[in-house]
Write a structure and sequence with these properties.
Layout (H helix, E strand, L loop, with lengths): L1 H6 L2 E4 L7 E2 L1 H11 L15 H7 L5 H9 L8 H9 L2 E3 L2 H10 L4 E6 L3 H15 L9 E4 H4 L6 H10 L7 E5 L2 H9 L3 E4 L6 H5 L3
Parallel strand pairs: 1-4, 1-6, 4-5, 6-7
Antiparallel strand pairs: 2-3
């Protein structure tokens, strides 16, 4: 990895589980309280219901998503209850990771590519701004969200879209994600990729403290 870091010019970060601390089980439990069970597939990756996937692909408005959730629930619930359950997984941006990105931007072009949705984006951008006093987008040359580009990782098309839109050479680009499937998708697109699986922290990866 040290040799790769010397060669690459661009780094594309995943968000949840890499820069933003998340706990999907909090959303699972919140939806269970509302009456929706088996939200996440075994192993903690991927959604069982298409409504979540369609939301992350930008195929649904916020209202259509909430109505889709209501169809899966045994009783009536408010928009705010659905949003709260959906956003329960989003926890915090550790300050040391923001500091790390500021250090890295002097050497690399930094990008973000996240499978997400409009409700989550509004929530975590507000969360970030309240904590740090500036826009999260300022950390990156550009941030890419699946619901805006209508493509989800790990599809080859999603990575090709980012590479083409940002005019990046895949052999000069490193992708970092906590999902092995997404890492494999980036490798299929010709990118260098690192699976952040908990054994190595971002600071250890870049040897910065």
């Amino acid at each position: 990895m040290e040799q790769i870091l010397q060669e690459v010019k661009n780094i594309v970060f995943d968000l949840g589980g890499v820069l933003l601390d998340i706990d999907p089980q909090r959303t699972v439990k919140s939806f269970e309280t509302l009456g929706l069970t088996n939200v996440i597939k075994p192993g903690g990756w991927g959604y069982r219901q298409e409504v979540f996937l369609h939301m992350e692909e930008g195929k649904l408005t916020d209202g259509e998503f909430r109505d889709g959730i209501r169809e899966l629930l045994p009783g009536p619930v408010l928009d705010a209850e659905i949003d709260a359950a959906w956003c329960a997984m989003l926890i915090d941006f550790p300050a040391e990771r923001v500091t790390l990105l500021k250090q890295l931007e002097s050497k690399y072009n930094l990008y973000l590519f996240s499978n997400t949705n409009n409700i989550h984006v509004n929530y975590f951008h507000k969360l970030f701004h309240q904590k740090f006093g500036f826009s999260m987008s300022d950390l990156f040359v550009k941030d890419y969200y699946s619901h805006e580009i209508n493509r989800r990782k790990p599809s080859l098309e999603s990575f090709q879209f980012v590479l083409n839109d940002a005019a990046l050479n895949p052999r000069e680009t490193l992708f970092i994600d906590d999902s092995k499937e997404n890492v494999m998708g980036a490798e299929r697109a010709g990118m260098h990729a690192f699976h952040l699986n908990g054994e190595t922290s971002l600071h250890q990866l870049f040897k910065l403290v």
